[in-house]
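TEACHING EXERCISE
Course module: macromolecular assemblies
Task: Read the component lines below, then compare them to the predicted structure of the full complex.
Student: A.B.
Group: 4
Components provided:
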Amino acid sequence: MGKLLIVGTVAFDAIETPFGKTDKILGGAATFIGLAASQFNVNSGIVSVVGDDFPQEYLDLFHSKNIDLTGLQIVKGGKTFFWSGKYHNDLNKRDTLATELNVLADFKPIVPDSFNDAEVVMLGNLHPDIQMSVINQMEKRPELIILDTMNFWMDHTLPELMEVVKHIDVITINDEEARQLTGEYSLVKAAAKIQTMGPKYVVIKKGEHGALLFHDDNIFFAPALPLEEVFDPTGAGDTFAGGFAGYLAATKSVTYENMKNAVVHGSNLASFSVEKFGTQRMKSLERAEVNKRLHQFKTLTQFDIELS
Ligand code: AMP
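Instructor-supplied answer key:
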């Protein structure tokens, strides 16, 4: 069993979609990553911070999924990171209504001794200085460092983000973010440019249009499973990243070939995440359901064409 260290937000989210609205519910990048990775035989731990307003029920959920919380700081009298977003009819687009950093503003991550030898480090979406601090605390260079980020950090902390990007192996970002980071409209050109910045593997997420994996001159594509209903896309990107990282940590192989499978596992898990509000679907997800849908993925993408 491989070890996976996850850093990212553990949050309260308030979400509005065309199908409904929620008050503060469990969210955060590290939350979705951890829940997705727990589908694999992996020893995962989260480094993050919450306030003492964070309910025990949520902590129990992490424990029930065997996610180690030694690295989760609980700040007395502090308020948990809060994010609120609204989706319109085009679920690929959302407006951020509020981002309240709260306890995240002064967060100094501490990687527990039990996880400073993790083979895979998944740097989920948060301040790049926090991501860098986690890299610096590792006892030795992990076999694989994966980074996920978003436009918020590109807008506010670009130099710090570029420093982290130098130290990573894989970046997972969405198409708009890849364009913002590189100034290139073509995703092929954008991926090539990103590979000169540090990461040798670039994963570009295109929401309901699937995900692309770039490495040198190779490109691999995995579609998103066409779903009858998408209820809430929040966390799809993080769930994808968690599935990707969890699979690679569990299989202990960080080759391009294995990353293709990891992209498919990530897409597969993301297809569940969007079916209900927040973490609801991932909380109850069974391995049998996951396997069944993997078969659907295979049928969706396989064809037998004669090549001359
Ligand atoms: P995704 O839909 O995969 O982009 O992830 C949504 C999750 O990211 C939500 O659960 C939020 O709590 C979290 N989130 C939103 N904005 C930020 C931010 N600026 N930094 C870190 N996490 C964020």
